[in-house]
Amino acid sequence: MPIEDLARSDVVTADRDTSVAALATAMRDEDVGSIVITDGETPVGIVTDRDLAVRILGADVDPATQTAADVMSGDLCFIDRGAGFYEAAELMSERGIRRLPVRDGDSLVGIITADDLTELLADEQQKLAEIIRAQRPAY
């Protein structure tokens, strides 16, 4: 199954100059754990809820002086929309990341998270359990 069928297409984005307070508010309002940072239409980084906690609160930095550019992870790793589940899982494992922006060429078209992959696996396990239950003899 291609990642484009699993990924969320409603990616929350912000530009580099967005304040960390605005990022936190957007995460709360949109119920997401990350925001892809863009320069125009080009994704250039990502800010996660953990970034805000560790790089602002944990570092005892004044949040009023910080922007997305100050806290984002700039080494953004992407996955192509046509890639498969296992390729996404392998890439997340190799890079030690939980979120992968999905692109079509240079365009951002979605985001897939480790939680999304875990949920898919749980659904598949449930289907297998139903097959086993249906074929099990009565006790």
TrEMBL record:
Domain of life: Archaea
SMART domains: CBS
Keyword ATP-binding: no
Record CDD domains: CBS_pair_bact_arch
Pfam families in UniProt: CBS
Keyword presence, Aminoacyl-tRNA synthetase: no
Domain CBS per the UniProt entry, residue ranges: 7-63, 72-128
Keywords: CBS domain
The name this protein goes by in its record: CBS domain-containing protein
Phylogenetic classification of the source organism: Archaea, Methanobacteriati, Methanobacteriota, Stenosarchaea group, Halobacteria
